[in-house]
Write a structure and sequence with these properties.
The complex is a heterodimer of chains A (94) and B (108). Chain A has 94 residues and is mostly beta strands. Chain A has one domain: Roll (SH3 type barrels). Chain A has two helices and five strands; from the N terminus they run E-E-H-E-H-E-E. The mean pLDDT of chain A is 96. Chain B is mainly α. Chain B has four helices and no strands. At the A-B interface, loops of A face helix 2 of B.
């Protein structure tokens, strides 16, 4: 399956309001991170949740965000980061 | 559009894990077993993603229910949605079970 991103790529999580079974939490939407790894391709939970097949498969990535990018008032170490898995259709090149 | 499960970044106090320790009860294990049977590849009457959708549809009520009660509600709503049984059949069965329990109680 084609991969739009590779480890090290800068990506932005799409800032979008979408009803339904969305697995992209609010706190990462619109934020910039770095692809840490390609996790693999999986059935799409957004359609699986409605009893559909989940096809076509969606590529899933582990994305690394700096904590200070995520939280304006972050008081921890400046190099603290957070990793979260995001599907490709929620990411755009940055 | 924020579902009740999407808590990241919302104001909250410290979480003390010790306060949330829990030994599963018998009815909770039964719900778990029931779910495993309904969701297994052989039957596949529903999927975990569908259960999550139903649980999150509770909205503000999501946090009022204990974990396994949410699972039970989700399973039941999914079976109704898929026509595995009807609301009337469910109501009748509940009535029957309630009656049986009451009889057992008064008989003992």
């Amino acid at each position: 399956m084609d991969r739009r991103f590779k480890p090290g790529d800068n990506v932005r999580v799409i800032q979008r309001s979408q009803p339904g079974h969305v697995r992209t939490p609010m706190y990462v939407r619109g934020k910039v991170g770095v692809i840490e790894r390609v996790v693999g391709s999986f059935p799409n939970p957004e359609t699986l949740a409605y009893g559909q097949s989940g096809l076509p498969y969606k590529m899933l990535y582990r994305v690394n965000f700096m904590q200070k990018e995520l939280w304006d008032d972050y008081e921890g170490k400046p190099d603290d980061s957070l990793e979260i898995e995001i599907y490709e259709h929620w990411l755009e090149a940055n | 559009m924020r579902g009740p499960q999407d808590l990241g970044g919302l104001p909250a106090g410290l979480v003390d894990p010790a306060l949330h320790e829990h030994v599963p009860t018998h009815w909770e294990k039964r719900i778990d077993a029931m779910m495993t049977l309904l969701f297994d590849p052989k039957r596949r009457l529903a999927r975990v993603d569908e259960s999550r959708r139903m649980q999150e549809a509770l909205g503000e009520d999501y946090h009022k229910y204990p974990y396994y009660e949410r699972w039970l509600l989700a399973i039941s709503w999914l079976m109704l949605e898929k026509g595995v049984y009807t609301q009337t059949e469910l109501d009748e069965k509940q009535k029957e079970v309630r009656q049986r329990i009451e009889e057992e109680r008064s008989g003992s």
